[in-house]
Please model this.
Amino acid sequence: MLSEFLQFLFSGVTVGATYALAALGFTLIYNASHVINFAQGEFIMLGGMLTVAGVSAGLPLPVAIALAIAAAAVVGMLVVRFAIQPAKGADVVSLIIITIGVSLVVRGLTQISLGKGTHSFPAFSGSEPLHVLGATLLPQSLWVLGVTAAVVALLGWFFSRTLTGKAILATAYNRLAAQLVGISTNKVLFLSFALSAALGALGGVLVTPITMTSADVGIMLGLKGFVAAVLGGLGNGLGAVVGGLLVGVAEAMAAGYISSAYKDAVPFVMILFLLFFLPRGLFGARVTERV
Amino acid sequence: MSKNLTLSVQGLSAHYGRIQALSGVDLVIPEGELVALVGANGAGKSTLLRTLSGVQPASAGAILFDGVDITRLPPHERVKRGICQSPEGRQVFGPLSIEDNLRLGAYTHGRQGVEEDLGRMFDLFPVLQEKRRLPAGTLSGGQQQMLAMARALMGRPRLLLLDEPSMGLAPLLVEEIFRVIVRLKETGMTILLVEQNAHAALSIADDGYVIEAGRIILSGPGRELLENEAVQKAYLGV
Ligand SMILES: Nc1ncnc2c1ncn2[C@@H]1O[C@H](COP(=O)(O)OP(=O)(O)OP(=O)(O)O)[C@@H](O)[C@H]1O
Ligand SMILES: [Mg+2]
Model:
């Protein structure tokens, strides 16, 4: 009983950590621009797929990972330059539709250049499972959780201790005042897309040895990250992390105790309940923008 | 006038969609002077300041700052050159601490000299020092106004734009705010002061402008405007 529960919990927090990173990406971009970036899932996909491409081109794994994350960040900035900025002045809904278009383009280009197959690369520290109270835990899960925790701590430091981090927050709190103190809101937009893309890609890299990846994993991962962000009160960083873990755990429990057929339905049932009972999310204090 | 012109605005117009909010505004601010801009609700005062700061595009005309055309520069470039604004309604970063608000005021300056500037702000507004760690949103209206002014000053303005700094404040606080403005003027700062409190503003100003429906309808030395009959009738309630 307990071992079964633990088993589901482990797998839940592991994918949940990936959703958390994606949700942080949604949160960052939402705060900087009030745009819900539905291309966020493609950054997760790019992290995994580009690492696969790097490894098969003969690069050492750490180098391939670093390049994949950097490339995703560059793609994030290209999205701003060629999709978001040309639509300057468009309303938020149009911008959101643009991001959906972007995700189709990124996915299509990836399929054309890297194929439609399913890929993986070796886990970072082998795949000999650890045994905890009768449940098994993959070393890669520890990597996922450890790196996610470190990234969350790093982001916390960035936003509370550095002037650049505070400038991003200031832009989220009051765009006009941010412009009047000399913050380039354009720069903030680029920075938040690059950072979100890197966060998403990192999640994709970490989880690929466990779940495998392919050019079309972005849709589901992105949507679940979105649910996690909304659950956390859209715009709240800590909420995004908790939301991600909750979605992951709920999904794993449903798959384990009910049927894995329901796994993907769980986040969407959660969001329906949320919209009915807690329209501002678990941690949302502010009114969320109409979407 | 032999002084250098810090700001020279020529034929400036601005629109909100199809609504014209400024029509051919001409205005000059000589270096080191305090210029007051007065006018009724909706006359276009804030729009003029927004256009000077670059957060509202100009649809016609030119803005020269130190003789350089800045009409098309983005807002942050103007802040870098020294155009700092304390906006209408304070617009503090509510969840951030008072100290963070002030440091963000110096955003374009990196670290250089920021600690000294912080000290100066705390001398000017001691209440901000007491509360420096608190979120700005917890301050009273008057304190937020002080913070908004101090934040603008942290940008080391070569031209300080103040939009209705006395709005909604108790008389005692209004006095304090005006005392600070006079002190800043005495240090040689160039200031454009927008006020509905026309009497107080014109009394301390070198020059004044009266704006109505987006046009400058009168201008002259502050004291002369105070004695102008039309101004007295319309804005001074005499
Ligand atoms: N965002 C906006 N969209 C459309 N019209 C606007 C906007 N802001 C201001 N206006 C209009 O532009 C005109 C000038 O407004 P502005 O805010 O500049 O006046 P003001 O002189 O600052 O008034 P107040 O003393 O009330 O602050 C007004 O008619 C106002 O209704
Ligand atoms: Mg106004």
